[in-house]
């Protein structure tokens, strides 16, 4: 069944968009990532204009993250104090990101900028993930103990002033560190339409030194508020949010997130991480090809009957 998108000004297969939202929502619930780093490129591949894909995918991330965050909240996997500090930084970063987004759109370079940033981010993140998971799997196959990094915050984080206790995370650090981390993710949320979990989760583990038990849930908690605010900014400033597209993505995303949260408790973690790393790299390569490959015909004319 085809539906017309009023803002994107095109028709889409509704079932395909729902399934896309469901698949990304599944990854969101499983890994604590908002999923926008996959939703936006996949929408672009489908033919949705990049600016509209960014703004509309933020809405889907909000819905799928709410479902996942509630699941982790019920099992005590959220640090609300840490999450509130990150949300404060994320809201500030969203405002800064909206200014940059409007500037790039006024220059007419928003589509190219989104593509280039995605290639760099996905290529870098996917490469690091793949290297880590392959190293872990090699040690497991050789019967060697898997080396786990000690849970401690980075020396730069330890040097920041005004320390505060975060009992649920097991930390005594300055709130400036999670605030600045949240602000950086807020900028990316507006410009790229991502929840930022693919950056937030590793940073919470290796920079802040948070307990792994609350990292995923706290990441989703922060994503809910920041992506909702970013959606409002897009709707008010650039009018790029296509509500029909957003609803289709939400229908699949909410269900997928709940299934992902359950699957995270049963499926083998290393193979899942390997799959995610390969998927991220595949999307990065596909975007790079789309940006650099010269089509045989630069322009085409389609006659409407």
Q: Spans with pLDDT under 50 lasting ≥5 residues?
A: none
What is the CA-CA span between the terminal residues? Answer: 21 Å
State the total count of DSSP E strands: 4
The largest pleated sheet is described as:
2 strands, antiparallel
Task: Give helix % range.
Answer: over 70%
When the domains are counted, the total is 1
Principal-axis shape equals: globular
Give, in spatial order, the strands making up the sheet with the most strands. 1-2
Content of β-strand = under 5%
* Structural class assignment: mainly alpha
**Total count of helical runs of at least 4 residues:** 11
User: Compute the gyration radius: what is it?
Assistant: 19 Å
Report the order of strands and helices.
EEHHHHHHEEHHHHH
Give the integer mean of the pLDDT values. 75
Organism: Sandaracinobacteroides saxicola
Keywords: Cell membrane, Membrane, Transmembrane, Transmembrane helix
Protein name: Probable membrane transporter protein
Subcellular location: Cell membrane; Membrane
Short key terms for the protein model shown above:
about 300 residues; mainly alpha; two-stranded antiparallel ribbon; 11 helices
Account of the 3D structure:
It is found in: Cell membrane; Membrane. It is a multi-pass membrane protein. InterPro entries: TM_pro_TauE-like, TSUP/Inactive_protease-like. The protein is mainly α and 305 residues long. The protein has one domain. It is 71% helix and 5% strand. It contains eleven helices and four strands, in the order ββααααααββααααα. The strands form two sheets. A two-stranded antiparallel sheet has the order 1-2. Strands 3-4 form a two-stranded antiparallel ribbon. Strand 3 and strand 4 form a beta hairpin. Helix 1 packs across helix 10, helix 3 runs parallel beside helix 10 and helix 4 (80-107) packs parallel to helix 9.
């Amino acid at each position: 069944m085809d539906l017309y998108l009023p803002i994107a000004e095109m028709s889409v297969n509704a079932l395909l968009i729902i399934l896309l939202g469901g698949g990304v929502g599944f990854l969101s619930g499983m890994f604590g990532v908002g999923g926008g780093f996959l939703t936006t490129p996949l929408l672009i591949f489908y033919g949705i204009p990049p600016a509209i894909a960014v703004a509309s995918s933020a809405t889907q991330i909000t819905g799928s993250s709410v479902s996942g965050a509630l699941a982790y909240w019920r099992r005590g996997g959220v640090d609300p104090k840490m999450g509130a500090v990150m949300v404060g930084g994320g809201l500030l970063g969203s405002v800064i990101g909206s200014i940059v987004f409007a500037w790039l759109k006024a220059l007419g370079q928003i589509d190219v900028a989104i593509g280039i940033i995605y290639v760099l981010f996905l290529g870098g993140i996917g490469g690091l993930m793949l290297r880590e998971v392959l190293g872990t799997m090699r040690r497991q196959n050789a019967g060697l103990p898997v080396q786990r990094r000690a849970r401690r915050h980075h020396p730069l984080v330890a040097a920041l002033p005004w320390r505060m206790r975060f009992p649920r995370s097991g930390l005594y650090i300055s709130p400036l560190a999670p605030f600045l981390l949240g602000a950086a993710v807020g900028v990316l949320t507006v410009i790229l339409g991502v929840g930022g979990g693919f950056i937030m989760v590793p940073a919470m583990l290796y920079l802040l030194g948070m307990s792994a038990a609350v990292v995923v849930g706290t990441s989703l908690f922060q994503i809910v508020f920041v992506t909702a605010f970013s959606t409002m900014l897009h709707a008010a400033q650039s009018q790029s949010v296509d509500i029909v597209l957003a609803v289709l993505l939400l229908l699949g995303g909410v269900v997928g997130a709940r299934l992902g949260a359950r699957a995270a408790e049963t499926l083998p973690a290393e193979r899942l991480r390997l799959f995610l790393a390969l998927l991220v790299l595949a999307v990065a390569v596909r975007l790079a090809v789309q940006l650099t490959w010269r089509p045989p015909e630069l322009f085409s004319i389609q006659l409407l009957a």
